[in-house]
Write a structure and sequence with these properties.
Blueprint lengths: L2 H28 L4 H11 L5 H4 L1 H7 L12 H22 L2 H6 L1 H29 L9 H13 L3 H10 L6 H29 L2 H33 L7 H20 L4 H11 L4 H28 L9 H28 L4 H11 L3 H13 L5 H26 L3 H6 L31
Helix pairs in contact: 1-2, 1-14, 2-14, 5-13, 5-14, 7-8, 7-10, 7-15, 8-10, 9-10, 10-11, 10-16, 11-12, 11-13, 12-13, 15-16, 15-18, 16-18, 17-18
């Protein structure tokens, strides 16, 4: 395709994706599910697993796809557009992230994070050994150690951005359940990215890559939070006029987000990590308020659904065509649910959290969603996993995210009102409206971003 043909195709795809996501979302809301879950499902339905199965010619015409990437097709623009959506979304989540409330429950967050990583990671390692020796779910060039580390990382990850949206959907921002889950989820995801760096280094036989990945990521965090944050705070007066962010302020902020995403992508982490940290470094108050107001609508309404569709177009559930493979898929799902949910519940209870709140934390932490899709997309693109295992892990990501909301309502629903009324902090700043908060470090995680 030439550039004109690509643009014509892209506009039609956008219309189909957005309308179909809203249609599935309308059904999902009736079932008590947030829009983001609907977008995950819609992405899979638009791919070869349903649309391509029922109407293969129409699906191929609408979404031309070359797995070998030897021709210019849908991937040429859908992938970079989806990455932009992820980066912008995580930039906003970073601006909404409240370190202060995580620090209040730091002990519980650490305990839940460690338990929520070790148990599912161990189960993932065991399953990888079985898959490696008894199936073809891992390509021949993947080593056993790489298979174990990758599947372990995939099993222990938590969908931090997805978790944020579910917590806001349940109006739990600032509560014990929301705070501990978010803190633990952030730690889990950072650890999972480090594990992925080790896998990619082994796969490429280049351990300098892993050192650059982890060391560069740590240096980026320190530099951004200690240097960029302070510099931006000092020049903020030049970027704000009449209690509003100027166009120059918007452009500079977006440029910094892009630079952060570029750097972490360059060193082998992911754009979402750089964008999130840069968002956390943005000054609160007017700057964060206006950035969210301007970025949020287009990001969550237009760009983020493109990522789910991109993942769905890579998902071929039809490859699971034997009873044994479906049995393995069930084993992955069971290990994911029991390993993550039960371990996090136990850790929360062990640190003095009530049983009802611990159940809520375990249920919330079990959601894989967005980050799972990111990590397995990387694994598929690099050839670490096969299309079949990719389909298994997509099913796990969708099901664990889909079940989070109804199970949470059943286990915790009766106590939600009490949880929402619990004191947020002794500091009145924590209970004030975040968009009108002073230029401090406190900022809630919810807000207009997640109310869809």
């Amino acid at each position: 395709m030439n550039n004109l043909q690509l643009s014509v195709q892209f506009f039609l795809q956008i219309a189909v994706i957005l309308l179909f996501c809203r249609f599935v979302g309308a059904i999902a809301r009736r079932l008590g599910q947030p829009q983001v879950v609907a977008e995950m499902i819609a992405g899979v339905l638009l791919g070869p697993s349903l649309f391509g199965l029922v109407f293969p010619e129409a699906q191929t015409w609408l979404f031309p796809w070359d797995p070998a990437q030897k021709s210019r097709d849908t991937q040429s623009y859908l992938f970079p557009a989806s990455q932009l959506g992820l980066a912008l979304y995580m930039f906003v989540v970073g601006m909404e992230f409240r370190v202060d409330i995580v620090a209040k429950r730091f002990k519980s967050a650490i305990a839940v994070s460690v338990a929520g990583m070790l148990v599912p990671f161990g189960l993932g390692v065991g399953l990888a050994w079985v898959f490696f020796h008894h199936t073809t779910l891992f390509p021949e060039k993947t080593k056993l150690s790489e298979a174990m580390l990758f599947l372990g990382a995939s099993m222990c990850i938590t969908a931090f951005p997805m978790l944020a949206r579910i917590i806001d959907f349940k109006k739990l921002a600032g509560t014990t359940m929301g705070t501990v889950a978010l803190g633990a989820g952030a730690i889990d995801d950072a650890t999972a990215w480090c594990l992925l760096a080790v896998v990619l280094a082994s796969f490429d036989n280049n351990w300098n890559h892993a050192l650059a990945n982890i060391g560069g990521g740590a240096a980026y965090v320190v530099f951004t939070l200690l240097v960029v944050r302070r510099l931006f705070a000092r020049v903020k007066s030049f970027l704000v006029h009449d209690d509003a962010l100027t166009e120059a302020g918007l452009v500079v902020s977006l440029a910094l987000m892009a630079l952060g995403a570029w750097f972490t992508d360059l060193i082998g982490l992911h754009a979402v990590f750089g964008a999130f940290i840069m968002g956390a470094a943005m000054p609160r108050g007017v700057v964060a308020r206006d950035l969210i107001k301007r970025i949020q609508p287009l990001t969550v309404a237009l760009l983020l659904p493109l990522f789910f569709t991109y993942s769905g177009l890579n998902t071929k559930i039809g490859l699971l065509n034997t009873g044994f493979l479906w049995l393995m898929c069930g084993a992955v799902l069971a290990a994911a649910v029991l390993g993550k949910g039960v371990a996090c519940w136990f850790a929360a209870r062990a640190t003095g959290i009530s049983n009802r709140e611990a159940l809520g934390i375990g249920t919330l932490m079990n959601s894989r969603g967005l980050m799972e899709l990111i990590i397995i997309n990387i694994g598929l693109q690099r050839g670490i996993i096969s299309d079949g295992l990719f389909a298994v892990l997509v099913i796990m990501a969708v099901v664990t995210t889909l079940m989070a909301s109804p199970i949470f309502d059943r286990l915790v629903g009766a106590g939600l009102d009490d949880a929402r009324r619990e004191p947020k902090s002794e500091d009145s700043a924590l209970t004030a409206s975040p968009l009108n908060a002073p230029d401090g470090d406190t900022f809630r995680l919810g807000g207009d971003l997640l109310k869809r």
